[in-house]
């Protein structure tokens, strides 16, 4: 039955900025995103993501694998590893996803981010705004010590977002995309640097309930 609120804390997290909201990826919100995924997030010649990536596949396999990946991450959530999937909501329209990922977060306090936007939502500064929102969740909400990101060298938009938010280059890496090798630029943002430009117009809700699930509260 649609509209039922399940008692699973990650589904109730919300981060709000003046331009958008990040909302825990409930099945209802995922259903609203399915048409975006079905229409295609990447073109035939676009390769912004490393393998394996469901968004490169043909429909309907694309939607099925994408949904399974979100559900699988939801089921794995525990202190040793979690992936918090958040749907990007711009004035009621669901236009993408912003994920926050951590491994043994109680020990290391490190997070990694991943995101995508519908093609017609790009070029409006939303990528930067959603990254700023999820960084606020990581540092202010969960007490992270450091955040990292990476993007292929020719992913100009993602690399520009990292640079504009104060990340420092952190070396190169290799990965495959559509089966072909390419270099990734790694980025690192520490808490002290984030604090210097911390925003006061981002609000959080549903964070405290997540702490025990992530091994951060009693």
Descriptive report:
By secondary structure, the protein is an alpha+beta fold. It contains six helices and nine strands; from the N terminus they run E-E-H-H-E-E-H-E-H-E-H-E-E-H-E. It has helices at 27-39, 61-76, 105-108, 126-141, 156-164, 191-196; strands at residues 14-16, 21-24, 81-90, 93-103, 110-117, 146-152, 168-177, 180-190, 203-205. It has a nine-stranded mixed sheet with strand order 7-8-6-5-4-3-2-1-9, sandwiched between helices.
Task: Kindly estimate the percentage of residues that lie in beta strands according to DSSP.
Answer: 25-35%
Please list the strands of the largest sheet in the order they lie side by side: 7-8-6-5-4-3-2-1-9
Proportion of residues in helical segments: 25-40%
Regions with little confidence, pLDDT below 50 for 5+ residues: none
Mean residue pLDDT: 96
Shape: globular
**Class per helix and strand makeup:** alpha+beta
Write the H/E string, N to C: EEHHEEHEHEHEEHE
CATH homologous superfamily descriptor of the domain at 9-144 and 199-210 = Gcn5-related N-acetyltransferase (GNAT)
Q: Rg to the nearest angstrom?
A: 17 Å
Under the CATH scheme, which class of the domain at 9-144 and 199-210?
A: Alpha Beta
Total number of strands = 9
Number of contiguous helices: 6
Q: Give the CATH architecture of the domain at 9-144 and 199-210.
A: 3-Layer(aba) Sandwich
- N- to C-terminal distance: 32 Å
């Amino acid at each position: 039955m649609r509209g039922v609120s399940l008692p699973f804390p990650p589904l109730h997290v919300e981060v709000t900025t003046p331009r958008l909201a990040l909302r825990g990826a409930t099945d209802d919100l995922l259903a609203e995103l399915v048409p975006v995924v079905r229409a295609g997030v990447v073109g035939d010649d676009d390769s912004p993501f490393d393998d394996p990536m469901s968004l490169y596949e043909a429909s309907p396999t694309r939607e099925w694998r994408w949904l399974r990946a979100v559900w699988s991450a939801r089921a794995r959530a525990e202190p040793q590893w979690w992936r918090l999937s958040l749907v990007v909501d711009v004035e009621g329209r669901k236009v993408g996803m912003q994920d926050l990922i951590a491994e043994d977060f109680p020990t290391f306090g490190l997070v990694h981010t991943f995101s995508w936007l519908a093609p017609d939502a790009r070029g409006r500064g939303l990528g930067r705004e959603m990254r700023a929102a999820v960084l606020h969740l990581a540092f202010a909400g969960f007490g992270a010590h450091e955040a990292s990101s990476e993007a292929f060298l020719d992913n100009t938009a993602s690399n520009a977002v990292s640079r504009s938010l104060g990340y420092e280059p952190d070396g190169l890496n290799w990965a495959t995309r559509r089966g072909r090798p390419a270099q990734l630029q790694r980025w690192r943002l520490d808490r002290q640097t984030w604090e210097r430009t911390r925003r006061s117009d981002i609000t959080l809700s549903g964070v405290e309930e997540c702490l025990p699930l992530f091994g951060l509260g009693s």
